[in-house]
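hey so i finally got around to running the thing on that chain from the lab meeting. sorry it took forever, my laptop kept dying and i had to restart like 3 times. anyway pasting the input first so we r on the same page abt which one it is
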Amino acid sequence: MNRKYNAIDADAHVLEPGDLWTTYLESKFQDQAPGLRRESNGKEVFRIDNNNFVDLGQHSEEAFALAGGIGMREGHGPTGNSYSDGKKGGFDPHLRIPDMNSEGIDVAFLFPTLGLFLGGIRDTQMAVASYRAYNRWLRDYCSPYPDRLYGIAMIPMRSPDDAVAEIKYASKTLGLRAGMVNPILDSSKPLHHPDNDPVWRAAQDHDMSIAVHAAVSNGVKVLGDDRFTNDAGSGSAVQHCAGHMLEMASAVFSFVMNRVCDKFPKLRVGFMEAGGGWVAGCLDRMDRHFDDIGANDTGLTMRPSEIFRRQCFISFEPVEGTLPLLAEYIGRTNILWATDYPHADGFTGAPTMIKKMPMAQDLVKDVLVTGAQRFYGLA
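ok and heres what got predicted. didnt touch it at all, straight out
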């Protein structure tokens, strides 16, 4: 770790051009290419495949613009209602850098936006090709600023063979250092299923960090959606609040208590965009069951909290008051933070918000920098 950093954003997003897949997909898939389009009635939709469309406007006329609507938390929304009206730095890396500079952010690790819907593609090989097309585009997006913008490859988990192939390609050919997997399963096999062991082995062998980040899956319900639905008198706020956390907690149990990390001790796993304070209780609960000699059937070689501190990372939001209280307990260099730029629920001024928390300066430095350096293997 030789370079000096002041702040590393562990989870930001790009805004992909609407025609990305018609440009980057191999020719045999072109007629099925995902893409943004406007219907005859003026409604903007994202075509996932064939007649499968995402209509974000069913909840809000500005829904697609909100993909780039950072500032909404402070009451500053986009000026239009189109996806193209979103924050320009999401689309253009040259415009993104000034936004990062204004907040003192040295490095940003980038996740998809439209790409989050690719899990809804029904044909497996089409999905695999679409993931690769996105990864190739992402490499090109980041290339003007190779020491400041780092892309997170999308990893297709429906088939372990395809996932392994994409990890190798993204790492060796594209030079990407981390891959994203979805806690909302694309298949009937959980993340910890032994059939997925080759995926985690490939990530470990290629020194590729695994970032668990929610996205759309292929017809699979998010945990809690059956309980927190609009029909039941709930709304999108509670669905987002509960579903993201429940899915991510499930991923923590898969990687830690179901032995993935124990089997692959050099694998680095990060749990993103679901808050962080809740994980302390998960660690306590896993340890309690590990220590119960009469009921411990996990096969783990050490306590779950020790495994977590060795190789797992959790992303806190900069408004979480528990961060100063729990950082040492979870592991001060196991903490990540994120802007979620340029999404509407993202945070402007995130580094400043963290600096204002009641923490010693050396802990602030670990939170802002060291955790992300460890997770992403950044020198």
